[in-house]
Amino acid sequence: MWSWISSNWSLIWELTKQNAFLGVVPPLIGLAISLPLGVAAARWRWFYPPTLVVVNVLYAIPSLALFVALIAEFGLTDTPVVIGLTVYSLCVILPNVVAGLRGVPASVKQAATAMGYGPLRRLLTVELPLATPVIIAGLRVGVVSSVSLASVGQILGVSSLGYLFVDGEQRSFPTEIYVGLFVVIALAVVCDLVLVGVRRALTPWASGRNRAAGPRPRWVLSAQPATPATPAGGTRS
Amino acid sequence: MSYFSYAWDWVTTSANWRGSGGIPHQILAHLGYSGLPLLVAALIAVPLGVVIGHTGRGAVFVVNVANAWRAIPTLGLLVLIAVYQWPTLLTWLIPLVVLAIPPILVNVYEGVAGVDPGVKDAAKGMGMTPWQQVIKVEIPIALPLILVGLRTGAIFVIATATIAAYIGLGGLGRFIIDGLANINYNEVAGGALLVVILALLVLGLFSLLSRLLVPAGLRGAGRDNQ
User: Fold this and answer.
1) Whether the predicted interface score ipTM is above 0.95
2) C-alpha angle B175/A60/A64, rounded to 5°?
3) CATH number at residue B174
4) Which tens digit of pLDDT belongs to each residue from B59-101?
5) Which residue from A147, A177, A236 is facing B83, i.e. has the nearest CB?
6) Quick one: how far is CA B40 from the chain centroid?
7) Domain containing residue A70: CATH number
8) How many contacts (CB atoms, under 8 Å) link A and B?
9) Which candidate from A59, A152, A233 shows the least CB-CB separation from B67?
10) Nearest-5° angle of CA B107, CA B113, CA B119?
């Protein structure tokens, strides 16, 4: 096992970089699309239910079928997989953006308005920072799912750590598959931890380690939705 | 729109609708390969989720494990089991059940644990036994989320069963994998289209079920949740 790893080190590293790209970029694009949509959905209530129907329909499309359709349109490059994973990421991030913004207590918003904040300044400096923990929770799900789901593209020839699965299967060589599983999961965990760090840096008041700043205000706790807006649990494929 | 024209050409070719590898046969196979794991997963995850939600025991553990499950790449799990050539039922049923359990378990747990404590107290105060509280109060109130869990599980299983064609399973994924092997892109596109239609029909079925089963007073409770 170790000899295979050491002799294929550069291959594993290249695939890992490629897989990291496919795992990280789509959720970031998904976040960029989710923010304006989420702000609109939190502001105009009628806008959200139809958006949620679209999100549920898109999320139901099996990945292999979505990649096939997108490859037929965009050719065999990274683009179709990036678009497909962006769609799935959008589906898990958008509900969290809406839940995060709706979780900001009315009293806090009124206080900001009373202090003379305009709608845009209030959104950027009060509502979005308070919604950040919930939004990052959605981003974490998007990144972990994308890292793991990118491997499906390998069946169609889009390079990722899935190469180790496909190649290992064709050669009936379990070591290669074990290495692939380990690296995919390790990559997902690393990305997840980075996002936890980002959340701590962006929202120091919400961090459990920051006890010196005094007890957490109640409204920070209540910014967490009672039930996670993100589709909970499990591997989608 | 080249994709749809390829797919449409293939789906409307009557020869593809005949024989043991034809479209109707593979649709039924796909339903079987998705339905059985979903049923087994539901039989395990629904009671377990209700127990955890009702008692609160093991909740943190279950939710964290279920969320960590996301990092497991489906394709890796399937090919790993395939290379060991374990008996066939084990090869396809076990991974599909394993992948369907977490979304069902977490949603059932969230639904039951999220029942308003005031409502639970009222049920107890009316003299209901714990069993009656669970069956008559907590499960009906949790039903929107339980259905969301089953729906998510069904969607995951249908998608995973498609990928499982790669390790030789029947079903609609066959057309995608065989089409790639034979360089017949119409077949690949057609198979993908049928999988999408099947997944959307199942989604529609669950939205119908939630209309029929969820008590009138609770409609809309699950709407804001995925």
Assistant:
1) no
2) 35
3) 1.10.3720.10
4) 888 888 887 888 889 899 889 888 887 767 777 888 889 889 9
5) A177
6) 11
7) 1.10.3720.10
8) 207
9) A233
10) 130
